[in-house]
Amino acid sequence: MGLTVAAASERYDLTIKMGNLRFRSSANQYRWIALGSFAVIMGISGALAYRLAPPPGFMAQGTLTSNNPPVKFSTTGTTILKQGEQLTPEVLLADNVVKAVADAVKLPPQQVRQNASVKISKPEQPLEIVVGYRSPDQQQAIQTADMLMKGMVEKSRLINRYRWQSVNQSLNQRLAQVTQDLKQAQQKLDQYERERARLLQQMKLQQDFYNKTQLAMADTQASEKEMVSSFATATAPQIVATPTSDPTVPLILGIGLLLAILVSRGLIPSVADWRYKAAFQREESDRLQSALYRLIKEGRGEITLVRFAMETRLSPDVAQRFLNEQAEVFNANCEIKDDGSILYHFHI
C-alpha cells in the first residue's frame, strides 16, 4: 500500500512539474506577443500623430464679427446684412478668395488653402469668425491671415451687393407690371363711364399696389449705400501658437501609450491566463477520469473514496464531489460502511 501511494505521489509531482513548464513556455510566448503588440500600437500612434499633427510653424489668428452700421435708413439693407452672416467656411474660403490671397502673398493657392482655417461660432451665440493661418515664417503667417480676413470681408460685400441687385431687379419688374395695370385701369375708367364706381375701386386698388411698390423701391434705393460686408474685423491677426506649443502630437502619443499598456499588460496576459487555465482544467479532468477508470478496473467495479483521494492527491471534499458526479453519470451506487468509509459500486 505504501509503495502504491509513493508511486501515485511521484506521478502527481511529475504532472505538476510538466504543467509548470508548459505554463512558463506559454507565458514566454505571450510575453513576446505582448511586447510585439506594444511596439505595433506605439508605431501606429506615432504614424497617426505625424499624419494628423499640424505642420510646424507659427499660427496667426484674427476674428471677424457682425458689421452693424450705426445708422440704417432701410429695412431691406438690414435684412440683407443679416442674411449675409449665414455664410459657411466653404463659402468664405471659396476658390476666388483663396486665389486672390495667394496672388497677394505670392504663394501657391493649394498651400494657402491647406494651411488656412475658419471656425464660426454656434448660431445661438454672437457671431464670431476665427480666421487662422499657419506658416513656418511668423511674418508670413500674420500677413496671410490678414489678407484672408480682408478677402472674406470683400466676399461678403460682393454677395450682399448681388442680393441687393436681385431685390432691386425684382422690384423694377414688379413696378413695371403695376404701372401697366394702373394705366389699363385709367383707360377703362375713361372708356366705361357707366361703371365708374367699380372702376374707381379697381383703380384705387391698383393705386395702392403702385404706392406700396414705390415705397419698397424707395427703401431699396436707400439701402444701396448700405450694401457693405456683413463682417467687420474684431481683432487683427496675431500669433497664437508657436512650433512647440501645439498639443496634438503629445496627446495622440499619450493615448497610444495608454492603449498599448492596457493591451500588452492587461488584455493579452488575461487571454493567456484564461487559455492556460482552460488547458489545465482539460488536462486535470483527463487525469481524474483516467485514474477513476483504472481504479474501477482494478477494484472490479468498486472504489473507495480514500483510495481515489490518495491516487489523485485531491482533498476528501473535492474527491467526494467528483465521485458523486461520476456516480450520477454512470448510475453507480454509493455505500457508507460501518467503519465510516465510503464505497462506490460501478457496473462493469
Write a brief caption for the model.
The chain is α+β, with helices and mostly antiparallel strands. The chain has helices at residues 2-52, 75-83, 89-92, 95-105, 109-115, 138-191, 196-223, 248-298, 305-312, 316-330; strands at residues 58-66, 116-120, 128-135, 231-241, 302-304, 333-336, 342-345.
Shape: elongated
Radius of gyration: 45 Å
Biggest β-sheet: strands ordered side by side in the sheet: 2-3-1-4
Terminal-residue CA separation: 25 Å
The unreliable regions are 1-21
The secondary-structure element order is: HEHHHHEEHHEHEHHEE
SS content category: alpha+beta
Topology, element by element:
Elements: H1 2-52, E1 58-66, H2 75-83, H3 89-92, H4 95-105, H5 109-115, E2 116-120, E3 128-135, H6 138-191, H7 196-223, E4 231-241, H8 248-298, E5 302-304, H9 305-312, H10 316-330, E6 333-336, E7 342-345
Antiparallel strand pairs: 1-3, 1-4, 2-3, 5-7, 6-7
Helix pairs in contact: 1-8, 2-7, 4-5, 4-6, 6-7, 8-9, 9-10
Walkthrough of the structure:
The chain has 348 residues and is of the alpha+beta class. The protein is built from ten helices and seven strands. A four-stranded antiparallel β-sheet has the order 2-3-1-4. Strands 5-7-6 form a three-stranded antiparallel β-sheet. Helix 9 (305-312) crosses helix 10 (316-330).
